[in-house]
Amino acid sequence: MAVLGRQIEASPHSVELRLRKAAVNLELGQWDYAAAEFGIVLEKEPQNLAALFYRAYANTQLRRYELALDDYHAFIRIAPVNIEARLGLAHTYEKLGRLTEAMDQLNYTVELFPDSAIAYAARAALEKERKIYAAALYDWEQAVRLAPNNADFRLSLVDVLLLMGKRSEARVALDGMVRNGTPRGLLREWYDKCGS
To answer: CA 192, CA 196: separation in Å to the nearest integer?
Structure first.
């Protein structure tokens, strides 16, 4: 960090150096410093996508959700087909309690990226939180179909099945995980929830 600081002192207008310093700040969890560095970059290059995206991320970490929204919206105006920015925007709406807007954004993200397991998983997580279990079940099934080796997605599917009272289906899903190599002992708690 000291080396970067000296380099910036020597070249204070270098966007590349500012971005590198901000990246180090992010890695160290220094959200305020990162947001400030990205702000300096954006003063020079208002359409710098990396600075917009990561400043939004830093502001989310700082719970400055309205500022994060501004950056995500600016990013999406420039690059409308970007899954990370779309998911970040949805997450920020969710943090603000604007669940309808979050769901609208996730629906649009699934439309844009119908082959993305992560898009389905993000929507399923919000649907589960809102107790829309049938929709969450569908989305977890899609996520598992697209990423069959993702154990977290499979367990989330089991969780929704259990919330819906579908214990036998949950057990079948667990048995599938065991067949795919997950040690049964790691799933004991889940099997217990199935009543076996």
So the answer is: 5
DSSP state string for 11-61: -TT-HHHHHHHHHHHHHTT-HHHHHHHHHHHHHH-TT-HHHHHHHHHHHHH
Is 17:8 a contact under the CB 8 Å cutoff?
Answer: yes
Structure tokens at 73: 């919206």
Q: Which residue has the higher pLDDT, 52 or 8?
A: 52
56 pLDDT tier (thresholds 50, 70, 90): very high
Distances (CA, A) of 158 to 123, 133, 189, 193: 16, 12, 12, 10
Among left, alpha and beta (phi > 0; psi -120 to 50; other), residue 103 is: alpha
- pTM, rounded to two decimals: 0.87
Q: What percent of the chain has pLDDT over 90?
A: 87
CA distances from 136 to 56, 87, 132 (A): 27, 17, 6
Contacts of 5 (CB under 8 A, 6+ apart): 21
Report the SS3 class of residue 129.
helix
User: What is the C-alpha to C-alpha distance for residues 30 and 22, in angstroms, rounded to an integer?
Assistant: 9
Query: What percent of the chain has pLDDT above 70?
Result: 93
Mean pLDDT of the chain: 93
